[in-house]
Design a protein that fits this description.
Elements: H1 4-11, H2 15-22, H3 30-43, H4 49-56, E1 61-67, H5 70-75, H6 77-92, E2 96-102, H7 105-117, E3 123-126, H8 134-142, E4 146-149, E5 160-163, H9 166-179, E6 184-189, H10 195-210, E7 216-221, H11 226-239, E8 244-247, H12 250-262, E9 272-276, H13 280-283, E10 290-293, H14 296-312, E11 320-322, E12 326-328
Parallel strand pairs: 1-2, 1-3, 3-4, 4-5, 5-11, 6-7, 6-8, 8-9, 9-10
Antiparallel strand pairs: 10-12
Helix pairs in contact: 1-2, 1-3, 6-14, 9-10, 11-12
Domain HTH lacI-type: 2-56
Keywords: DNA-binding, Transcription, Transcription regulation
Protein name: LacI family transcriptional regulator
């Protein structure tokens, strides 16, 4: 079994230095930390986390809270991309991650309380933002460190928030569709309770109402399941033929383009399609989809940096961080005159 002394000998440092690297001590340079961690990984050295936790009263673990069922978590690339960004940052700083998810508030809150009482985590990252959230309310009341990936709805100064400007992002993609000549635009959403959905709807409506270009827009809500989507599309294309469909995210978008194919509705010849959150779902779609890239890995990295800082210094002033977005134009919004 590889010991801390073995790691120290290979790295050319003292065992106490390796110990301080494991604890992420501020007195050790980043160069030494990287070198020692690389050697630990190469030789397969794993510190005794349980024993260290008893001494330091720290788990060196960050909890990720996802408000949805596990099926959606596994399906939506957004969560895996954010998780990757968080995990990279945590690993670089000597922290691990633990994910908890439940479809309802009662079970999710119970899991969060259990993780805190059993000292399994030092802080949380919430991968959503919504009003009247019992998990955020509990963490705030308990003064337990947490970061929200989402909008600071109430200008709360008790937590840090990492988000995109979703109003501006939705405004920009809608304006692009209008400029390309798509005047009849329908925005399709599968929820309107989370802040991200509310802001994207707001940006869409602002662009439609404020544009000097001719156009009409509407927002239609449907469930993210095949029956609801099929009924919605049957209604849309029997009563009118929208020029473009803008969906709330890539998962809903992929379901819609699948049903459009089954209905014999061509993209972009019969209707253009665009969505938010770029991933393999949108890049490899047929045709490839125009998207607003929200940089989920960067959201995760920034949230990881912020929660580790708050764990180490709970009294540090909280701040809101905005990650920029960009539009990626692909074939799904292509017009012949673009050639």
């Amino acid at each position: 079994m590889v010991t801390i002394k073995d790691v120290a000998k290979i790295a050319g440092v003292s065992p106490s230095t390796v110990s301080r690297v494991i604890k992420d001590h501020d007195g050790i340079s980043s160069t030494t930390k990287k070198k020692v961690r690389r050697i630990m990984e190469e030789v397969g050295y794993a510190p005794n986390i349980s024993a260290r936790n008893l001494v330091t009263n720290q788990a060196n673990t960050i909890g990720l809270v996802i408000k949805s069922g596990m099926h959606e978590v596994n399906l939506n690339p957004f969560y895996s991309e954010v998780n990757l960004g968080v995990s990279e940052t945590c690993r670089e700083n000597g922290f691990s991650t633990l994910t908890t998810s439940a479809a309802d508030d009662v079970n999710l809150l119970a899991e969060v309380k259990e993780l805190i009482s059993s000292r399994q985590v030092d802080g949380f990252i919430l991968l959503y933002s919504k009003a009247d959230d019992p998990i955020a309310d509990f963490l705030q009341a308990a003064r337990f460190p947490y970061v929200v990936i989402g909008k600071n709805i109430f200008k709360n100064c008790e937590a840090a928030y990492v988000d995109n400007d979703n109003v501006q992002a939705a405004f920009a993609i809608t304006e692009l569709l209008l400029k390309k000549g798509y005047s009849e635009i329908v925005m399709v959403v599968d929820n309107d309770i989370f802040a991200v959905a509310k802001d994207r709807i707001k940006g869409f409506e602002m662009a439609m109402d404020g544009s000097a270009l001719p156009g009409t827009g509407s927002v239609i809500k449907c469930e993210n399941e095949d029956g609801s989507i099929r009924r919605m599309l049957d209604f849309l294309f029997s009563s009118s033929r929208p020029h473009a469909l803008l969906t709330l995210d890539g998962v809903l978008n992929s379901r819609i383009i699948s049903h459009l194919y089954q209905l014999g509705i061509r993209i972009p010849e019969d209707v253009a399609t665009a969505t938010f959150s770029d991933s393999l779902l949108t890049k490899l779609a047929s045709p490839p989809q125009t998207t607003v890239d929200i940089f989920p890995q960067e959201l995760g990295r920034e949230a990881g940096k912020e929660i580790i800082t708050l764990v180490r210094d709970p009294d540090r002033p909280k701040k809101d961080i905005t990650v920029p977005t960009r539009i990626i134009e692909r074939q799904s919004t292509h017009k012949e005159e673009d050639e």
